[in-house]
Design a protein that fits this description.
Rossmann fold; alpha/beta
Amino acid sequence: MNPLNPNPVKTPVALVTGAGPGLGGALAVGLAQAGARLVICDIDPERLQLTEQRLLTMGAEVLARVCDVSSSAAVDALVAEAASHFGTVHVLVNNAALVPSSADDAQRRNAHYAYLTTPEPRRSLGFTAAMSDEEWLRFWAVNVHGVFYCTRAVLRLMEAQRYGRIVNVASVAGISAMSSHSPHYSATKGAVVAFTKAVAAEVAGANIFVNAIAPGGVHTPEFDAYLQSLDEAGRQRLWQMIPAGRLGTMEEYAATVVHLACDPHYLVGQIISPNGGCVI
């Protein structure tokens, strides 16, 4: 039996946001392997096309569209097209997000990791006091407003059919102080955690189960590039904070998301954090 089969539907439709190569692409591939038809979106057309081609090579049915999830109109248009093309949406994976990836972000991250792993006098690291309005608001537009817009749009379909599975991709940054170097990112992922719990309690009675994963480090090409930028001492500082001594693979994270999108399970409003033991 198809593990994603939402009775009586045999081939569920899954919408994955931020589905370019990286974690979002791996989530789309994992769902396709479980038998889903895919609607994928990303703001970057070239990255989106790479995932689309990978899915088509697998033989998956896929609708790929460029979409900025920080625009409610763009999200509504995407979900309307998905419903027109496939009939409905059964699964939503809210993966699209801004992550701290600028040179300033890397500098803050390195300073924070050194502070955590090197004996030195305690002090303020000065991250929040130096943050601009623009930087703060930009993260909220995608990481929180985008999750709301996508959830609202698909709930209009899911409530009518009395079935749905929503998986939000939060972060250990939203459940711990592991990302104190990025207060803007941490705040938005904490909001995703709270939103997950509130919506889960609201819609569970309509057989719509909402959960989230809170990943630790994900071994994406972007994170690998960051690792390569560090010297050996910097890499060892990172591994020292992860009891498992490594990052999680994209496939490991995808397996958790696929489980939350599957039937049957009894998980509602849960925040599952695959993180190698860095937050227990």
